[in-house]
Amino acid sequence: MKRPAKEQLVAELKGKIQGANALYYTDFSGLNVKRMTDLRRRLRRAGIEYVVIKNTLALKAVNESGLAGTKLKGPTGVVVAKDGITAAKLLSDFRKENEQRPAVKGGLYEGAPVDEALLKKLASLPTRDEALGQVLGALSSVLAMFALALEGRKTQLESGTGSSAA
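-> structure tokens emitted (166 positions)
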């Protein structure tokens, strides 16, 4: 590969990295083409990219993006995601189905280093949409209870059993 082509690959990956909040490095050895295609398809459906690139070029793109990359060895695929939790969930689910492959080499989540244990913890967290749903559900139940309390007090006052200090 000629130098201009390498520079273009680095620039493309750098652009993808700058718009992302998570990078996960994987070792895809042991995956056949069918499984690899399945992984890419699942990630693509969620708006996540899986890029296979030479280690030196990947490290250069990460460093040029202002992040601290680690030296990589062996075949490497880079998961580039705007939603790091969704990417971690998809990667973890795929690994469960495929004999713990691809192996996780490490990565970055919001600029902090990630190892395999942290990736598992991230995968167990609710996604942004799930977390928002939980918060909204909690708020609506509190508001419903408040409305019921007001309705009860109104009924008390109308029936004349309420205290005059209210």
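Residues 82 and 141 are 31 Å apart (CA to CA).
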